[in-house]
Amino acid sequence: MAIKDIDQVGLDTYKFGFHDDIQPVYTSPKGLSEDVVREISRQKDEPAWMLDFRLEALREFERKAMPTWGADLSRIDFDDIHYYIRPQDRQARSWDDVPEDIKSTFDKLGIPEAERKFLAGVGAQYDSEVVYHSIRDDLEEQGVIFLDMDSGLREHEDVVREYFGTVIPNGDNKFAALNSAVWSGGSFVYVPEGVRVEIPLQAYFRINAENMGQFERTLIIVEPGAYVHYVEGCTAPVYATDSLHSAVVEIIVKEGGRCRYTTIQNWSTDVFNLVTKRAVAYRDATMEWVDGNLGSKVTMKYPAVYLMEPGAHGEVLSIAFAGEDQHQDAGAKMVHAAPDTSSLITSKSISRKGGRTAYRGYVQVMPEAERCRSNVECDALLIDDRSRSDTYPYMDIEESDVAIQHEATVSKVSDQQLFYLMSRGLTQEQAMAMVVSGFIEPIVKELPMEYAVEMNRLIELQMEGSIG
Amino acid sequence: MSPTHTVHPVVMPLCPGDQKQETSSTRMTATNGQTTLSIRDLHVSVDDTEILRGVTLEVAAGQVHALMGPNGSGKSTLANALMGHPAYEITAGQVHFKGQDVLELETDERARLGMFLAFQYPAEIPGVRVASFLRMALNARRENEISVMEFRRLLLDKMQMLRMDPKFASRYLNDGFSGGEKKRNEILQLAVLEPELAILDETDSGLDIDALRIVSDGVNRLRGANLGVLVITHYQRLLNYIEPDRVHVLIDGRVVESGGKELAERLEAEGYERYGAAAASEDA
């Protein structure tokens, strides 16, 4: 037989399973309590309103039941998690100030030094605190703010207070409440009216302490006519016990503005990745979420766009990959709250070795939101018979003058495709990787080039597996 | 012109081992060139139904052999079995290529050894561009990777030979291709990968006369001392353009007759009826 057993192809071997021995300066005790929340706020020397916000969120978190839909979350032990950890006391403003062992971690991630010079600013979240953050001079001259969230709060308290928690209130859902109570790090981006940020703003994230939660908080404000592309990518070290990542991302795109938010996540396969991402888009504004979920044990993530005024447009492009013991429950949410708004959801998922993916989408058209258009396309690729893919397309349409389309396909990598590619000399792993790369190509081509290259390399690496 | 041909029903004894080995070496010395492909008493089943019932065939380097037969005679089965398709089970017989036991090898190993199959129905691979696929395939059989620039030159050169629009290179592999485009793409791959044995499985089907000319012209340019070709076809039409050195007739899983190119002409005139009622009805 020319085609080998599919299980011999190690699709989801985790490549970045390493961690440096960093000594954190302050680590909170395990478990969540009012004292822990107060201590986090005290360590950060926050204003009283933020402490109140956190404490209120803590009460919401305790009040809310665990979600019973979606993935199995019963194995999360909230008492067995560190909610705050800080690797060093002060922030590095230039690359020279970044400690060597942290640099070496970035080296292992394969982020070349030369590439960094092209980056407008690099906010690297190492453990809970942003350790390195720089903004190119011309961005500063344009009035663009790109800081970690903690610094944003210190240096631009008025702006933060005006918008923080307005898109995702602290009681929005159990995990948004948890994040609101213990958040640390994340990015604060402000783009003034009419400013186009030509280079993507990039941030690299990493979890690096066993049982340590990561609760970053990102707030992006795009003023009228402005444009920004924010990019985050993560890899994480492999640990035996479960880790929790619960982020909140809030974005406001004002009239005629455009924001694209690109995420490539490759969490190690023990991480619960439960993220709340939501944007509001005003008149003629465009919000695009590009979302790639490769790792983690469980992901629940449904980037949302609230289309608040006529002409607003929302897009979600997502890729989910689930291997053995992985459950990727991902999707999108579009709320058409005004007439003449449009949305586009394109979702691609890949399942293998018993992995499970789900597309969970919600499209809502409010009364009198006439002439709305929404197009949903979700494609699932199953690599073997043991794997599973589900589609849950919820629609709540309260207006008749609308055009809503939904299309779902499920396909398998066929023997015919593998045979064809192998008959040209590609190994089975290469052939499989090629079919998978082709499947996600419509989304990969939307990524910044270095991410597209990285994404394809990641897929190839994961296909190589155990066969020499 | 009165065609001359020899009829020799090839019903090889089913016993394995030395006896066949000897028969084969006798035959090998009889051919002029060095034997590239040697098929001996090949039996192939699909879903437990025997399709090939003892095929023996040799293709020497530099020669073009045509395998003709009606629908259902097992032509495509032979093509797929030679390349190692997992659905085709070899129940008996041997296949050697360049002296190596091919049946021991995976499909990709056969390809890297120099075998190539131009598919009757090429698979569609959405999202994968013709150029990136071909570069990877070419690199798979090279020791050192070809540079992007060098590959680009090579590809454009071959595409020009086949009168293909350069834009073709950035289309997704066979995805939404017309029948003719798929076939032309197969020959493009043949031209770029430069194998030592090309099996063309019904490459003429679905081609209009202009495309047939271009494709045949491409194959003819690739002919040479290093390339053995096995052309599988139902009709003689293709052989007007690609002139075979030898023609074999496959009926009901066996080669029943071999001869020169005139055999193909006779088949065109007379059809496959003379080989029996079963073949004739399948042909209808």
Fold blueprint:
The complex is a heterodimer of chains A (468) and B (284).
Chain A: E1 26-27, H1 34-43, H2 48-63, E2 85-86, H3 100-108, H4 113-118, E3 122-126, E4 129-132, H5 137-141, E5 145-148, H6 149-155, H7 157-163, H8 174-182, E6 187-191, E7 201-206, E8 217-222, E9 227-235, E10 243-245, E11 248-253, E12 258-266, E13 271-281, E14 286-293, E15 298-301, E16 304-307, E17 313-322, E18 327-336, E19 342-351, E20 356-365, E21 372-382, E22 388-397, E23 402-412, H9 415-422, H10 428-444, H11 449-464
Parallel strand pairs in A: 3-7, 6-8, 7-9, 8-11, 9-12, 10-13, 11-13, 12-14, 13-15, 13-16, 14-17, 15-18, 16-18, 17-19, 18-20, 19-21, 20-22, 21-23
Antiparallel strand pairs in A: 1-2, 3-4, 5-6
Helix pairs in contact in A: 1-2, 2-8, 6-7, 9-10, 10-11
Chain B: E1 5-6, H1 18-30, E2 35-46, E3 49-60, E4 64-68, H2 75-83, E5 89-97, E6 100-101, H3 107-113, E7 115-118, H4 130-140, H5 148-161, H6 179-193, E8 197-201, H7 209-222, E9 228-233, E10 246-251, E11 254-259, H8 261-270, H9 277-283
Parallel strand pairs in B: 4-9, 4-10, 7-8, 8-9
Antiparallel strand pairs in B: 1-11, 2-3, 2-5, 5-6, 10-11
Quick recap:
The complex is a heterodimer of chains A (468) and B (284). Helices cover 24% and strands 34% of the residues of chain A.
Order of helices and strands of chain B, N to C?
Answer: EHEEEHEEHEHHHEHEEEHH
| Assembly context of the chains | heterodimer
Distance between the termini of chain B: 28 Å
**Alpha-carbon distance between the termini of chain A?**
18 Å
Helical region count of chain B? 9
What structural category do the secondary elements of chain B indicate? alpha/beta
**Computed Rg of chain A:** 22 Å
Low-confidence stretches of chain A: 1-18, 88-93, 114-133, 205-213, 235-241
